[in-house]
Design brief:
Elements lengths: L1 E6 L21 E3 L3 H14 L5 E7 L11 E3 L5 H11 L12 E4 L4 H11 L5 H8 L7 E4 L2 H4 L2 E4 L6 H19 L3 H9 L2 H7 L10 H14 L1
Parallel strand pairs: 4-5
Antiparallel strand pairs: 1-3, 2-6, 3-7, 5-6
Length: 228
């Protein structure tokens, strides 16, 4: 998955010691899969530092969600558990983290929601009223990387990097296999591959498909051709 971090500078090396505490999911490095959201963050922090702000891209290796190595907590929507967790982290004054998760994913408490959270904490609004209000909010997304181990699942993406070589290498291996498996000539194999939806996704840098093995891409192509 391609994820984005908005800041006043490009982040090529992540230092968790520089991350601020008492955020939604605790102290950690935050990214989002919604580029427009990262652009808003970049614009805001850039304004604070008298610059335009920068969006840094990363590859997030999603197997971290299921590898059994990383402790993961995921919220698919605003709900009671999300609220309790955010309040827990925002109230934590101690340097000791409020939780021991490596990675936390879920919605964002933006400025408007943050004000309502403060009102909820202070007893000015009820839990029911707060959660009712959240049902009308636009979808948001964030992933917090809380530990050094979790950062191994992020890879900085140099915007100047030419991915054409990776795509070419995948294409060559895939075409050879396509020819052998289907007993067709190179012209036919080339036509099938380069006119496929699979190739379109591979050529789109934002999908991160060029980071997959050619075998994975080939399985996708086979499934597409079978269903066409």
């Amino acid at each position: 998955m391609i994820v984005y971090h908005g800041s006043y500078i490009e982040i090529t090396k992540i230092d968790l010691t520089k991350c601020e505490p008492r955020k939604d999911f605790g102290k950690g490095f935050y990214v989002t899969k919604i580029k427009e959201q990262a652009e808003i963050w970049a614009k805001r922090t850039g304004k604070d530092h008298n610059c335009n702000g920068v969006v840094t891209e990363f590859i997030f290796y999603e197997n971290a969600f299921i590898d059994g190595v990383h402790r993961v907590l995921r919220f698919d929507s605003y709900n009671d558990k999300w609220l309790d967790f955010v309040v827990l982290n925002r109230r934590k004054d101690s340097p000791i983290p409020a939780h021991d998760y490596d990675i936390v994913e879920g919605p964002v408490a933006d400025d408007k929601i943050s004000r309502q959270i403060d009102n909820y904490i202070e007893g000015k609004i009820s839990r029911e009223k707060f959660l009712t209000m959240l049902r009308h909010e636009e979808p948001t997304h964030q992933i917090c990387f809380c530990t050094a181990d979790s950062l191994l699942m992020l890879e900085y993406q140099d915007k100047n990097k030419d991915i054409s070589y990776e795509i070419s290498e995948i294409g060559e291996s895939l075409l050879e296999k396509l020819i052998l498996d289907n007993q067709i000539d190179e012209i036919k194999a080339t036509d099938l591959f380069y006119n496929s939806g699979t190739f379109a996704q591979l050529a789109d840098e934002s999908t991160g498909f060029y980071l997959k093995t050619w075998q994975e891409i080939y399985e996708m192509l086979k499934k597409e051709l079978k269903n066409s």
